[in-house]
Amino acid sequence: MSDLFVTHGAISWFELRTKDVAKAKAFYTDVIGWEIEEMPMADGTYTVLKAGGEPIGGITTHGAEGEAVWAGYITVDNVDERVAKAKAAGGHIAMAPMDIPGVGRWAVVIDAVGAAINFITYEKKD
């Protein structure tokens, strides 16, 4: 597991939300040379992006209502505690903390200036 997945405050994942996953995969494999791994999910397939064999992000249709957008994930030591701190600091919660089986605990926070960011605490892997 990469240090980014366990280091509090590290930007650990980037996710492209788009209606055209196939076009995005073709673009990034051609232009950047990222490798693709398809991961079955309950509601479809998630495309994992890899650089040098290491997972760095993903592509999904989830949350792709409008134009395509990249979303960043910040590793935190405890999602629930950090969500409470975000609220106290003037932010609000777009998606309450929830568990993602096999991944970790996640929430979407709107910061004090109106920008959305994902907080995540990854499950410990052996």
pLDDT under 50 segments (min length 5)? Answer: none
Kindly report the name of the CATH homologous superfamily of the largest domain.
Answer: 2,3-Dihydroxybiphenyl 1,2-Dioxygenase, domain 1
| Strand order, largest beta sheet | 2-3-4-1-5-8-7-6
Helices, by number, come to 2
Architecture overview:
With 126 residues, the chain is of the alpha+beta class. The chain has 2 domains: 13-73, Roll (2,3-Dihydroxybiphenyl 1,2-Dioxygenase, domain 1), CATH 3.10.180; 76-126, 2,3-Dihydroxybiphenyl 1,2-Dioxygenase, domain 1 (Roll), CATH 3.10.180. It is built from 2 helices and 8 strands, in the order βαββββαβββ. It has helices at 21-31, 79-88; strands at 11-17, 35-41, 44-51, 54-60, 69-75, 92-100, 104-110, 116-122. An 8-stranded mixed β-sheet has the order 2-3-4-1-5-8-7-6, with helices on one face. Strand 6 and strand 7 form a beta hairpin. The longest helix has 11 residues, at 21-31. It is globular and about 45 Å long.
